[in-house]
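Board notes (copied after class):
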Amino acid sequence: MTDDLKKPQLRALQYWDVDGVGELTVGFFFLLVAIVYYLQESAPGSLLSKIFSIASVLLICGGAFGVRWIIQRIKERTTYPRTGYVAYKSDWKNKGDVAIAIGVMALLLAFVVFTMVTDAKLIDWGPVVCGLGLGTLLVQAGYRSALPRFYILAFLSLLIGAGLVVSGLSIVLSLPLFFGLNGLILLTSGSLTLWRYLRQNPPPQDTPDEQ
C-alpha cells in the first residue's frame, strides 16, 4: 500500500522537471551571475567593483525566489496547456527542498562575502565550494525526482569546479568560468529536455464550436 501511494507522488515530482524549464531558467541565471561576478572582480577596489559586489549579493539572495517565479510563468504558457496542472502539497515537496536550498545558498553567500573582505588562500578553492553546493542541490533534485540526468549534472558541476582549481586560474576568471560553464550545461540539458517534451506533447487543437 505504501508503494502504491509513493508512485503517484513520484510521478507528480517528476512532472515538475519533465519539460526542462527549470534547467533553462537556472542556466540563464548562472550566465548572468558569471557576467556580474566577472565585472565585480575585473577592477578590484574601484567604485564599479563595489557596485557589482552589492549586485552579486542581491542576485544570489533573490535568485532562488525570482527563478522559481519565472519557471512558474513559463510553465503556465508551455507545460500546463499541454499536459495539465499539478497542485503540489507543501508538506512533501517544498519543505525539504527549500531547507536544503536555503542552506546551500547561505553557504555560497557566506563564501562570496568572505571573498570580498579577505585575501585568504581559501579563495582559490571557490569553484570547488560552489561545485559542492550546486552538486548538493542537483543530487537532491535527482533523489527527489528519480531522474538520472540530475546526477550527471551534479558530477559535471564537481568536475568543473575541481578542474578550475587544478588549472591554477585566478579567482577573477575561475568563478565566472564556473558559473558560465555550468550555465551552458544546464541550458543544453534544459533545451534538449524541452525539445523532447514539446515533440511528445503538441499543443491542444482548438475544436470548432458545433453548429
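Comment from the instructor: The helical segments are 2-16, 21-42, 47-78, 80-83, 94-117, 126-145, 149-167, 171-200. Residues 6 and 115 are 44 Å apart (CA to CA).
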